[in-house]
Amino acid sequence: MSQPLADKLRPVTLDEVAGQRHLIAKNAPLRNIIESGTVPNMIFYGPPGTGKTTVASIIASKTDKKLIKLNGTTASLQDIRDAANQVGTVAAVNGILLYLDEIQYFNKKQQQSLLQYIEDGSITLIASTTENPYFYVYSAVLSRSTVFEFKTVSPDDILPVIDRAFSEMGKELDCGFDIEDGVKKHISYSCGGDVRKAVNTVEMICLSSNVPAKGENRKITMKNAELLGQKTSLRYDKDGDEHYDIVSAYQKSMRGSDANAALHYLARLLDAGDLPSACRRLMVCACEDVGLAYPNIIPIVRSCVETAEAVGLPEAEIPLADAVILVCNSPKSNSGNKAIKRADEDIRKGNYGQIPRNLQNVHFDGEDRKIKGQHYIYPHDYPNHWVYQQYLPDEIKDAVYYIPGENKNEQAAAEYWKKIKGDKNK
Predict the structure, then answer these.
(1) pLDDT tens-digit profile of 50-88?
(2) Residues 133, 138, 140: CA angle, nearest 5 degrees
(3) What is the pTM of this model?
(4) Which residues, in sequence order, are CB contacts of 277 under 8 Å at separation 6+?
(5) Which residues are within 8 A (CB) of 399 and not within 5 positions of it... i.e. 6 or more apart?
(6) Helix, strand, coil shares of the chain as percentages rounded to 5?
(7) How many C-beta atoms surround the C-beta of residue 163 within 10 A?
(8) How far apart are CA 206 and CA 16, in angstroms?
(9) Distances (CA, A) of 177 to 5, 7, 91, 189
(10) Short-list 60, 119, 118, CA closest to 92
């Protein structure tokens, strides 16, 4: 085929674009801007295959501007200058709309070079990125642009595109199709919200199907759909936003005691082969969010993690699932985490002093010391293995970092020491 199917089916009007109703439905903000005829500088942010390039092309045709496409992975400063040199020429009478794909790959100098053109209006910039623009786009460019977020396209919105793809392939191959039940639905879900990926999957399924006898339809089987569509359901980049979104949702679901949600995100991590992140966040959650409410959970989870690392994927999912469910169902306390953060804050503020003499690792006294001797009191020589002495420096001797959580374990320990220490419970 001379032209990829995805290009053949690329929408030419906003109504043909799959999804993004929050941006381009009737009276939606982006649609109103486009129909006003005055297009500002914009940044399109979202996953691949969600219509960013398509909408930019539609904008260019609506505004009669010449569309110039550049890609941040390959474009240079000279490419930007060449685009600017076309301003005012016959080829760009109504101005230029520069569509810069993957702007996050432009360095600061390259992004700065855009400023003079977008400030004087000679170029209207539409930049796209799959990464958070507030982290990757130069602030001066960002302040002169409006950010629009393109969301993952739902399976229901992708189904009509799949129908069109099969129809177009039927014309191309001059045949009909006998499509097994569930094939279209499988494609719509397995593409992970990427419309282009769904169309490409249809194309490959049709081309790989058995050539029938003359006059018969090609058979599109679920087996072939599963084979060609496998491992496409998960958007994942270990250095990208999707990675951090998943691990964040994973840990927050455990913290929130939602086992079903936590297992879902665990499955997504493992499906992407990211065993280290799944194990690390699980260990952190056991310590940070369960902590002293159930201290024994830490060696238990550690044991599950070691087992998972020993057996590897796919069997690693079994001990990790056990540990995730245990963390979700355990009582929660972040008192230890809060305590060390309070101590850290004191240190950063400079609230520390000389370590008390009785705690120092000192074996001799200088001639200038009036009171000789270390005077450390050994707690094990006293009832209940405790005796009062000052442990904190004089400057912060009354500081309190640890506050027991409202759970059985910590309250029992607090009550125990209250009885022993009495009013010296510090």
Answers:
(1) 888 888 888 877 777 788 888 888 888 888 888 888 877
(2) 115
(3) 0.58
(4) 238, 243, 247, 269
(5) 346, 351, 392
(6) 55, 10, 40
(7) 12
(8) 23
(9) 17, 22, 44, 21
(10) 60
